[in-house]
Design goal:
heterodimer, A: alpha+beta, Cytochrome Bc1 Complex, Chain A, domain 1, five-stranded mixed sheet, 18 helices, globular, B: alpha+beta, six-stranded mixed sheet, 17 helices, 14 strands
């Protein structure tokens, strides 16, 4: 699962049930970069990163981070909002991700031929569409058969929605925002939604920054939720693709919701199917107004830029957007787990096991120790689980771990995953993993093993700087989750300071049976039972 | 990373390529005039000067034993990367030992070599955070070394040892075989994997080198001696092109490379030849389904097509770009996803290699009840490409996206070098991509229509769908005779 080439120390944003994106290149697997940075070593022969990052804060609260790199006349831009799946209410799961899709539909100028006329139709479509959803839910709950009158009323509503969609469609300039970016040479246009963050990315020839600023300031201020019901259908197909038809996707959805009983980390970011089908334009608009203010956003730009000019450009465009109210606080804290939880998912696929332990989130001193344990257990061919489970005992075909699943801000999970090597079973693999966790409690980790981790961290920190988009991503990430991009500057030293005794203490405290959730994918071809759910054509 | 959907598929599985070359002068945007200052607020009317950029030119050196080396210094970070592209490939697998080449590649990395045990290699590399990879793909092998500058010497010793004298340590061979068998067991778990592999078998035939698959018997029959022989017979310095980028001085690097590779003797390099599929087979349409319990129908629709060195390649590439290759700008994305809301991932792709017949395909995943509509839209959109001229706007946008995203082809020294390596490995001229660019700029609507008419064949479509065995065949039967593919129980 994890290989040397994908080694990432902190805050790996794996796609595994973690992020959903607006668009997946139809034929490549999107790679989400995740790494952390350190300073002195990085630019040992030049100014340190700390000296190279230029910060600017607008009066409306928008944070701008910039790094100049002049090798090629291009720039990578990452806009990160402090909003994600955790900000959704019960019954509206998937809203953060649906909004991210809708953010590509344009504004009052981009994507429309005549917004004033379009708006009248869109308002009516929203009203009738919401009514139709409601009727459909009512009829689905009925114990008796749907009467001809009820069906006729439903069909009439459906026709009204279809007609309104056609009417609204006359004003639409399809995908105009994306088209503008492409025409100006933009590549890598995408967005992703996670538990804590929603991110929008683009790479452009550096002299096209004015196009970017005009488009992005406009969509931060004036997005228009056009083609709403069609996009909801797209998201349903995305859910089927990622979660329903993917053994890993469905296992992790089930496993995560078993591990979290109260905190919204337990809810799949893409949303439950029934919730997605009930999301309304009104709720989506309200979500935007609450969470998409400039004060909840960080923009990172890395590349061939002149920071002074960029600041002028951003002030002139984004600077006009008023600040929004502070975002609502998340009250729920996951209660202590009091006993092992085990879940199974039956699927027409070979077995997989996922094991998770509750642990603290970002900022807690214990958090760094889990990063070290993560490396000891599964990073590289010489890691302990790779050596023992895969090579020596030949129990598993692959093993992996993640110290911050499924989000980073709130208390989260340390997870381990493995695919058994037949004829061995998940039971055997589990037992072997627990034996290694026990060893962490009883035997101090040798100094050489810890040194290897620090060496790799240092090298990764240098490698991280190869990519404009990777650096932009990291700066915006840490600014958003930790409130200060410099948070990362301290992480390397904290990790280097972890002692064998720390590891033993943490292992004893957290790797207990009662703090554990185990999810298993069990091979089973169910009876044929194929339905499209309650979804109807829109 | 290319705004326009033209890609090179030199080595199958290789990434998207753009251009390389000397000065890149981006022309004025095609749909808007350059005259007049940019509008200050409306992104739809802004215009810009072309991006001017002269990418650095790598050095090309040939060692006495025929090994070709491209070098480009880059002193920004204290890192060095060496890649090796090797003229070998899974196309060389003997019919009864499918999987041999790919196991050889895996074992060159994990089986020790250069006098070191596997454990010594792994320990040492990981202690100084050196990354080494080796793999053998369809038409070539590739290896890479990525180290901090301070570790170059030791890194090169280990790297060259693995390439030249891999040890194929028996325990590691056994593990790799077990893992390959587990891979067979698991390859039907994801519908996306099933539909992709079955589509290739339908296009090329199940025995063709471009589609054939490993089996429990083929993997079980491979011995350590087979691996050693495959390495000995196919990997030679005169079949390798190195690409070196990073923080070094060229003269020092050449001396270091000569030290580890210079006394490696030449050998007989296999000449890449892959047989064409008989016309009788490629011209016949077919509809197949695979019964698997899924919530969506996973589909591929397409046929074999021209190679990259065909005179029609550029026109067809732009036709494909407009049809479905350019994501959000394309007709399929707008029609099937944006307007109808029927799929998340939808588009078309032209994979025109040099050595093997190309593949052109459309794909989508959609719920069962909208399967028929999506297939109908696929067919309707091909028909439209074949019968109507594309609009002026579509062609202009395709050209503009291509020309303006040009600069991203030079986004790093390693990108510049790897492009040159791939072109040389494929026997294409160094300015191949500049030639493509010139053709793109000159292309007319009539050229695009002519290419679509000549090379997109609705009467030859191979359609494959994975989904419900009860309902899916009925849906598909409206497009022709449907047959079932039964998945092998072994995986």
């Amino acid at each position: 699962m994890k290989t040397r080439s994908s080694l990432r120390l902190r805050f790996r944003l794996k796609e595994n049930g973690r992020e959903t994106r607006w668009w997946r290149p139809a034929f490549c697997i999107a790679v989400i970069l995740g790494f952390s940075l350190n300073l002195d070593l990085v630019f040992a022969e030049g100014p340190s990163l700390a000296d190279r990052v230029i910060e600017h804060k607008l009066a409306n609260g928008l944070t701008v981070l910039m790094v100049e790199r002049h090798q090629t006349p291009v720039v990578s831009i990452n806009i990160t909002f402090g909003v994600g799946g955790v900000n959704e209410q019960v019954g509206q799961t998937g809203l953060a991700h649906l909004y991210e899709h809708m953010a590509f539909k344009g504004t009052r100028t981009v994507g429309t031929k005549d917004f004033d006329k379009e708006k009248l139709t869109l308002d009516e479509l929203s009203r009738v569409g919401t009514l139709l959803d409601q009727r459909q839910r009512e009829l689905a709950k009925k114990s008796s058969a749907v009467t001809p009158d009820e069906q006729a009323a439903l069909d009439a509503l459906q026709k009204q929605v279809t007609d309104l969609q056609a009417q609204a469609g006359q004003y639409v300039v399809g995908n105009e925002m994306a088209l503008l970016y492409q025409r100006h040479g933009g590549v890598g246009l995408n967005a992703s939604t996670g538990k804590d963050l929603t991110r929008y990315t683009i790479n452009l020839p550096a002299n096209r920054l004015p196009v970017w600023a005009a488009i992005e300031a406009d969509r931060m201020a004036n997005p228009v939720l056009r083609e709403f019901y069609k996009e909801r259908g797209v998201v349903m197909e995305e859910r089927r693709l990622r979660n329903d038809d993917s053994p890993n996707g469905l296992l992790f959805e089930t496993f995560t919701s078993a591990a979290f009983r109260a905190h919204p980390y337990g809810v799949p970011t893409i949303g439950w199917g029934s919730d997605i089908l009930s999301l309304t334009p009104a709720a989506t608009e309200a979500f935007f107004k609450t969470y998409y203010g400039p004060n909840n956003a960080t923009i990172a730009l890395v590349g061939d830029i002149n920071p002074k000019e960029v600041i002028v450009l951003i002030e002139r465009t984004f600077g006009k957007i008023p600040a929004a109210s502070a975002t609502p606080e998340i009250m729920t804290v996951e209660p202590e787990q009091r006993g092992e939880r085990r879940v199974e998912v039956e699927f027409d696929a070979e077995p997989i096991v996922a094991i998770g332990y509750h642990k603290p989130g970002l900022g807690h001193p214990d958090d760094d120790v889990f990063d070290v344990i993560d490396e000891i257990l599964t990073d590289g061919l010489t890691s302990r689980l790779q050596t023992i489970l895969v090579r020596e005992k030949r129990l598993a075909a692959s093993v992996g771990s993640d110290a911050n699943y499924p989000g980073v801000r709130a208390p989260n999970l340390f997870i381990l995953t493995a695919t058994p090597l037949a004829p061995h079973t998940t039971v055997e693999v589990e037992a072997a993993i627990y034996a290694e966790l026990e060893r962490l409690k009883t035997e101090p980790v040798p100094a050489k093993e810890l040194q290897k981790i620090v060496n790799n961290l240092d090298a990764d920190l240098v490698r991280a700087l190869r990519s404009n988009s990777g650096l932009a991503s990291q700066l915006a990430l840490f600014q958003t989750v930790a409130g200060d991009w410099r948070h990362v500057l301290k992480s390397r030293d904290r990790i280097a300071a972890v002692t064998p005794a720390d590891i033993q203490r943490i292992a004893r405290q957290y790797f207990t049976k009662s703090n554990r959730t185990v999810g298993t994918l069990v091979k089973h071809a169910r009876e044929k039972n194929l339905t499209a759910g309650n979804e109807v054509a829109r | 990373m290319n705004g326009a959907g033209i890609e090179r598929q030199g080595t199958r599985g290789a990434g998207v390529l753009g251009f390389f070359g000397v000065a890149v002068l981006l022309t004025c945007s095609v749909t808007t005039a350059c005259a007049g200052g940019p509008s200050m607020s409306d992104p739809r009317t802004m215009t810009f000067k072309p991006v001017e950029f002269t990418p650095p030119e790598p050095n090309r050196v040939v060692l006495d034993n025929g090994m070709v080396v491209y070098l480009l210094e880059d002193h920004e970070l204290p890192l060095i990367t060496v890649t090796a592209t090797m003229k070998t490939g899974t196309w060389l697998d003997p019919a009864d030992k499918i999987g041999l080449a790919s196991l050889t590649g895996a074992l060159m990395r994990t089986g020790g070599g250069g006098g070191l045990t596997p454990e010594q290699v792994d320990e040492e590399l990981e202690h100084f955070a050196g990354d080494v990879s080796v793999s053998i793909g369809h038409e070539s092998g590739s290896a890479s070394l990525d180290v901090l500058k301070k570790d170059l010497k030791r890194g090169l010793q280990i790297f060259s040892g693995l390439l030249r004298t891999p040890a194929f340590e028996p325990a590691r061979v056994e593990i790799a075989k077990l893992q390959a068998l587990e891979g067979i067991r698991r390859r039907q778990d994801n519908p996306g994997s099933v539909v992709g592999r079955e589509f290739m078998k339908l296009l090329y035939g199940p025995e063709h080198p471009s589609a054939r698959e490993t089996s429990i018997a083929s993997i079980s029959g491979i011995t350590r001696a087979d691996l050693a022989a495959f390495h000995r017979n196919t990997i030679h310095p005169n079949g390798i092109i190195l690409g070196v980028t990073g923080d070094f001085k060229t003269a020092d690097m050449l001396a270091a490379l000569r030290e580890v590779f210079g006394d490696w003797a030449k050998g007989a390099v296999p000449e890449l030849k892959i047989a064409d599929v008989p016309e009788s087979q490629s011209a016949t349409p077919a509809i197949r389904f695979v019964d698997k319990e899924t919530s969506q129908t996973h589909m591929r629709v397409g046929h074999l097509t021209i190679r990259e060195n065909d005179p029609d390649y550029v026109a067809l590439a732009i036709a494909n770009d407009i049809l479905g290759g350019s994501s959000f700008r394309s007709r399929l994305f707008n029609d099937v996803r944006t307007k109808r809301g029927l799929a998340y991932s939808v588009g078309s792709r032209l994979m025109a290699g040099v050595h093997d017949q190309g593949v052109w395909l459309m794909r989508a995943e959609t719920k069962l009840v909208s399967t028929q509509e999506v297939v109908s839209r696929f067919i309707a959109n091909i028909e439209r490409m074949r019968t109507e001229l594309v609009t002026d706007q579509e062609l202009a946008e395709a050209k503009e996206a291509y020309v303006n995203s040009f600069v991203f082809s030079f986004s790093s020294p390693s990108a510049i070098v790897s492009r040159l390596v791939e072109l040389e490995n494929d026997g294409l001229p160094k300015d191949f991509l500049q030639q493509v660019r010139e053709k793109v700029v000159k292309l007319t609507k009539e050229d695009v229509l002519a290419a679509a008419k000549k090379h997109l064949h609705p009467d030859r479509l191979k359609i494959i769908a994975v989904g419900s065995g009860d309902a899916l065949p009925k849906v598909l039967s409206t497009f022709g005779e449907v047959k079932e593919i039964k998945l092998s129980p072994e995986g």
